[in-house]
Structure formats: structure tokens, C-alpha cells
Amino acid sequence: MTVVVDASVAFKWFVTEKDSASAISLLNSGQPLCAPDLIVAEVCNVGWRVWQKGEITDEQLRIISLRIGEPFSKLVGLSQLAPRATKIASLIKHPAYDCFYLALVEQENTPLVTADERLISRLTGTPWASLVVSLAQWTPTS
Known about the structure:
This protein starts with a strand and ends in an 8-residue tail after the last strand. The chain is globular, with a radius of gyration of 14 Å. It is of the alpha/beta class. The protein has helices spanning 7-10, 20-27, 38-52, 58-67, 78-92, 96-108, 117-123, and strands spanning 3-5, 33-36, 74-76, 112-114, 132-134. Helices cover 51% and strands 11% of the residues. A 5-stranded parallel sheet has the order 3-2-1-4-5. Helix 7 (117-123) links the parallel strand 4 (112-114) and strand 5 (132-134). The model has no long low-confidence stretch (mean pLDDT 95). The longest helix has 15 residues, at 38-52. It has one domain (3-137): Rossmann fold, CATH 3.40.50.
């Protein structure tokens, strides 16, 4: 089964932080991974932010920029997801960039694995709650 992952998971493939081991486990699970191509910009931006703070080296930032696209069997263009992502954002009153992942989840009929607890909390009681799995609770059969 294909799994959609967001930047909160993908960044953990490159650094050691809370739940990095779970993110690596997902990466090595053999399950096909997909994401909106927005993930490239988001992970590079997070990398830049932590680099600015001196938390990663120039080389780590370079590796992130070179390798972020490699694990994905499919990166989906934003223009095809934009109408649905914007609609979801308006329905749940949440930033649209997270909703691109939800639009892709609907399109692919597959779960989103995320470490974004704010997003998970925001989805409580919505039709999307059942489509999202916390990275901390993800298993290969999720």
C-alpha cells in the first residue's frame, strides 16, 4: 500500500530527533511513498532553518537538498491538488499547505503518516481524521 508522508516525517530521515527511528523504519519498510512536490520545498526550508541555528552542517543541508526526492515513488504536482486542498483548508480552517497532503490522501485513497501533532489535533472530528496516522503510532500494516 502506498503511503503519503509529509515534511514532518521526511525531515526525520536526515536528522536525529524525536521519532526519527520510526521515520527511518517507514522509509525502509518497502512501502511506496508519495507526496505533493511541495515536500521538497518544505524539507529544504526546515533544513535551512535548523542550519541557520547551527544545528546541522553545510554538508547535511546539501545532502537534504540533493536527496529529498529520492525515496518517493511519486511526487504529485501542486496544480492538480490545489482546488481540493484549498477547499479542505476552508472547511477545516487550517493552512492550505498541509491540506495539499490531505488532498493527495483522498486522491490516492491511502493514509497520511505525519509527526505534525497540531494537524492531527485539528483533524479530530473531521472526515479526514481517519485518514491520518501519527508517525509515533505507525506500523507497516497501518
